[in-house]
Amino acid sequence: MKFSSRQSWAVLGAAAMLCAAPSWAKTYDINTLAGKVASVHGTAGLQIRFSAFIEEESLESAAPASSVITPTFVLSSPLDGTSILAPDVTVNQDTAAAPQNETAIAVDPNNALRVVAGANDYVTRTWSCTIAGTPCSALGDGYSGTYFSNDGGQHWCCVSTDPAHLGTQIPGVERLTGGIYDAGGDPAVAFDSRGNVYYAGLGFDRTSPPNTVAVNRGTFDGAGALSWGPPTFINPTTSPSTLNDKEWIAVDASPSSAFRDRVYVTWTRFIFQAGTGAYVQSPISFVYSTDGGKTFSSPKLISGNVLYGQGSHPTVGPDGTLYVFWTGATRLATRDSIWVVKSRDGGATWSKPVAVSQVADIIPVADTQFRVNSYPSAAIAPDGTAYVTWSSLLSDTGGLCPGSTNNGCHATVLYSRSTDGGATWSSPTAAFAATTRTAIGYPVMQPDGSTLNAPAARAADTLFPAIATSPSGRVYVSAYIADVVSPWQTCASAPPPPVGRITCDMLGNYVDNARLDYVVADLSTKASSLVTTQHINTQYGFGGGFFGDYTDIAVGSDDVFHAFWTDSNNLQTVVWFYGAQFTPTLIHQEDVATRSGSF
Q1: Which of 485, 433, 440, 479 lies closest to 458, judged by CA?
Q2: Of 85, 214, 217, 295, which has the highest C-beta tally within 10 A?
Q3: CA nearest 247: which of 200, 301, 294?
């Protein structure tokens, strides 16, 4: 989903939140996603946020019925590509301009050519079918998309076109897939030791309380086709005072582990005061399954006194030790930290939280507007060394940024390692060499005849990291790098979203627009390389405000990495979009792309 943990924590008077609110205190309608998001944003001193997916979904709505729309202007840039170029590969197979974002990927430990990927998939918002006279695109939403490859990521399956042809959309969660929830997504995927694959995601309604964590198990037949079983709902609730967010999944795929094929799921449990709707806390919850995801243990809170958390990430060591990392703070902390707990008995008991490092939570990267976070990603090497990576706001002169600003500060992907089972951690180290952002496309003339010149040079921001290890001990880390800035012409007047994401009534001024590339480094050899073939423009898909919450990377038994990110260089033709019908119009949107390789 789209929610993200927000920047650094100021002193949080959490004790006051646990008491009855005075009669004049602000109240929130926590029956809706929008009310819950407002409550979290309205908590003084709190910098934790919902995932960007949840925040975006709280704003979503279908377009009102109207005649066919012919766009006046469609925002674009001559610096954008027209297709994702080889050797990068587009993973989603739809061609009707549906957005996809928030990438998760896994490789079968027994077959290095078999890869499964997941993403938030808005393909139902572009379906051309109707149900009882209503366009399917008005009834759809963000759904749980999956894709698979049997040739090492060179070709991918499948596409969904209507409720009777779902392709590899996850079944049984959202309404058009036979489920009970308005929307779903926030993907995480993992294989077990026998070649079964598991998808974890969310299911929720946008204007009423029901929500859940969901896990589906997928199996491959003899011909290599993937099919998904029904979901198992974890912690489903209809209470307005609870919202499940930002889950992740891990499986103990070690054949020699005492907990072989045990499935682990963690998530953030946002809790609100029943009377006022005020945010109370957001601890990390945990469950496990010993029967292939058919049933799960009762939820357990594992974050100890770190009650204000988000973005958990479980990972399993070769000896079966389970680690869970997240970002969060204790009651009176002045900053977030990256935290870790571990279990040596399959999740039955847990250690106390250990702080890996303080974090200055990142803010939207300079000259962008999409939501960001400092969620950790983690992996355990075959020798038991634990690695965790995250993005922190650093001062250009060294150390954590003293404030929450891009002036004199920049987002940097860091990593730390532990060789003693997570008891102590190395000092955070930058995962990628420092570089300076490059300006292209300047100068440009504004509509009023003035000139927009290139901005001053600044350090290139890095964000949304992922990390993975191979059986031979290779350690790969990947992330976006905002290494280019260029002019972008804005829209001065447009219909409200979602129609206004396609058509613009009057063009506005040019602004500076940071573009992204995706980079992969091998921490074992210090080699690194850009894997994108074209710079990525984040202004597409959701008006520039949502580009997912994370990216991912996986490594097979052949030491080949599979980097997976959100891209925007494909041009596709939109006709149906959120219930509105357009004359066929070429637009850029968000797709998900991969590159496979090794150093």
Answers
A1: 485
A2: 214
A3: 200
- Find tokens 């029943």 and name the residue: 274
For tokens 């009762």, name the residue.
298
Q: How far is it between the farthest Cα atoms of the chain? A: 71
Number of domains in the chain: 1
In CATH, what number is assigned to the domain containing residue 573? 2.120.10.10
Token pair listed for 58: 């709280």
Q: Which residue has the tokens 């908590």?
A: 43
How far CA 267 is from CA of 214, 255, 309, 371, 563, in Å, comes to 11, 26, 10, 19, 24
Sheet with 336-343, strands from edge to edge, namely 308-316, 322-329, 336-343, 354-359
DSSP classification of residue 177:
G
CA distances from 133 to 129, 139, 308 (A): 9, 11, 46
Three-state SS sequence of 187-220: EEEEECCCCCEEEEEEEECCCCCCEEEEEEEEEE
Residue 156, token pair as written in the block: 């991918």
Q: Which H or E run contains 284?
A: strand 284-289
Tokens of 357: 């490092």
Which candidate, 370, 388, 420, places its Cα nearest to that of 311? 388
Q: How far apart are CA 242 and CA 263, in angstroms?
A: 24
What is the SS3 assignment for 15? helix
Sign of CA dihedral 7, 268, 318, 347: positive
SS3 category, 533: coil
CA distance 590 to 119: 11
pTM: 0.95
- What are the pLDDT tens digits along the chain (599 aa)? 433 333 333 333 333 333 334 434 789 999 999 999 999 999 867 778 999 999 999 998 877 767 999 999 999 999 999 999 999 999 999 999 999 999 999 999 999 999 999 999 999 999 999 999 999 999 999 999 999 999 999 999 999 999 999 998 999 999 999 999 999 999 999 999 999 999 999 999 999 999 999 999 999 999 999 999 999 999 999 999 999 999 999 999 999 999 999 999 999 999 999 999 999 999 999 999 999 999 999 999 999 999 999 999 999 999 999 999 999 999 989 999 999 999 999 999 999 999 999 999 999 999 999 999 999 999 999 999 999 999 999 999 999 999 999 999 999 999 999 999 999 999 999 999 999 999 999 999 999 999 999 999 999 999 999 999 999 999 999 999 999 999 999 999 999 999 999 999 999 999 999 999 999 999 989 999 999 999 999 999 899 999 999 999 999 999 999 999 999 999 999 999 999 999 999 999 999 999 999 99
CA dist., res. 453 & res. 468, Å (int): 41
Cα torsion through 124, 129, 132, 138, rounded to 10: 40
Round to whole Å and give the CA distance between 105 and 458: 32
Q: Is 248 helix (H, G, I), strand (E, B) or coil?
A: strand
